[in-house]
Amino acid sequence: MSQTVRWCTVRRLGSAAIGLSLGLVLTAGVLAAPAGISFQPVAAQQGAELALPDGFSYRILVSQGDQLRDGNLFGRMPDFTGYLPLDGSRLGQLWVSHETRPAGGSVLTVGRTADGAWQVVGSEAFDFSQVGGAWNLCAGSVTPWETILVAEEYPPAKAEEIPSGLLADPARYGWIVEVDLERGSARKLYGMGRFSHESAIVLPDRKTVFLADDYRGGIFAKFVADRPGDLTEGQLFAADLQGRRWIPVPRDRAILEKVREWAVQNGATPLDRPEDIAYDPADGQVYLAITGDNAKEGQDAYGQVLRVDPETLDSEPFVLGGPQTGLFNPDNLEFDPHGNLWVFEDKYGDFINAQYGNNHIWVADAEGALHRFASIPNGAEGTGPAFTPDGKTLFFSVQHPSTPWRSSVVAVQGF
Fold it and tell me: What is the CATH number of domain 7-413?
C-alpha cells in the first residue's frame, strides 16, 4: 500500500515555491485587505466568546435544546448549513446537518426584520426514516438545482460503533444523501461510493461532483453523472495526485462499498484527512482542505489547503498551516461572492493553547494571504459556512462549545 502523501513535498513544488507561499502569509499584515471586505484582523484568543472584528456583529438563531415549531428540539452537533433563497438575501431556508449517530437535519426558515436583523420564522426537523436513517452528517453543499447534498462521515460504520439496542445495517451508512426540501424527500447516492464522506460539491456543469474522504489515508474522488441534474447513476473516479490521473472505480456494488481500500490498492493517493472542498468559478480550480494528522510531525500535523486543477490534477499548496502562518488544521472552506476563500479551523488539541488560541476563522485572498476574521468560543469549532447571495450575511454553526454556550447556529453581519 502507498505511503500517505506528505504534501509539504508535493509534486513539482520545490522549496522556493513553498517559501513564496509562506512569504505571502507571513507578510499578510502589509498586504491589501481581502476583496470587497475591510476589517482589522482579530488576535488569537482563548476566551468563551465569539470574537469578531470591530463593525461586525452576530446573532444566535437557534441553540441545542431549543424547541422547533414542529415540537421537536434542535439537536446536538450542528455542522453544515446551506442557504436556499426564497426571496433573495432577505428570506430563505437554512438547512442544518447534525453530526450525530444516528444523525438528523433541521430546516429553519429565516428572514430579515425591518432593522435588518435575522430571525427564525419557521423551523422543523427533517425525517430521514425514508432512507433508513442517516449517520454522522458532516459538511455538504447546495446543488445548482437547489437540493442539498449531505455527507455521512466515519464509515465503515462498524457494528460495534452502532449503539446497543439499535437494529441497523452498517452498510446503509457512509454515503452521500441528496435532500429535496421542496418535496420533503431524500435519497442515498450509492454511485458515489461508501467511505468517510466529509463533503460533496457539484460543479456548474450539473454532473461533476467532487468528494473528500475524512480519514487518515483518505482519498479525493470525482463522480460524473450519466445525466446532468440526476446524480443517481454515474462513474466514480479516485485521484492519483502523484501520477496526475483519475482512476475509474468499477461500477460494482461490492467495490463501491469499500472504495478507499480498492482505490489505494489501485494507485489512488492517500491523504492526511481530506475534508471540505470549495470550487472557484473564476479560475476553475478546486480547493481541498487537508486537516493533517497529529500523529505525525511538521507539515503533516498542521494541515494545509491544496489547490487542484480538476482536469490535469496538478496540485500545489494554496495556504500552509503551522506556526509560520498561525493557521492550524483547516477543515471547512467557502468562497464568498468577492472570491475570498474562508477557512475554518478544527485544531487538534495539541495546538489549542495560549500561543495559538482557540479555533479561528480565516479569510484567504486571491494571493493566499491569510487574515484572521474570528475567534470561536473555547471548546468549539466553527462549521458549515454559508453566505447569502449578496454576501452581506455569513451563517455558520458553533459546534460543541464549552459553557455558557450551547451548540448554535449564528448569523454574522457587518459586511
Answer: 2.120.10.30
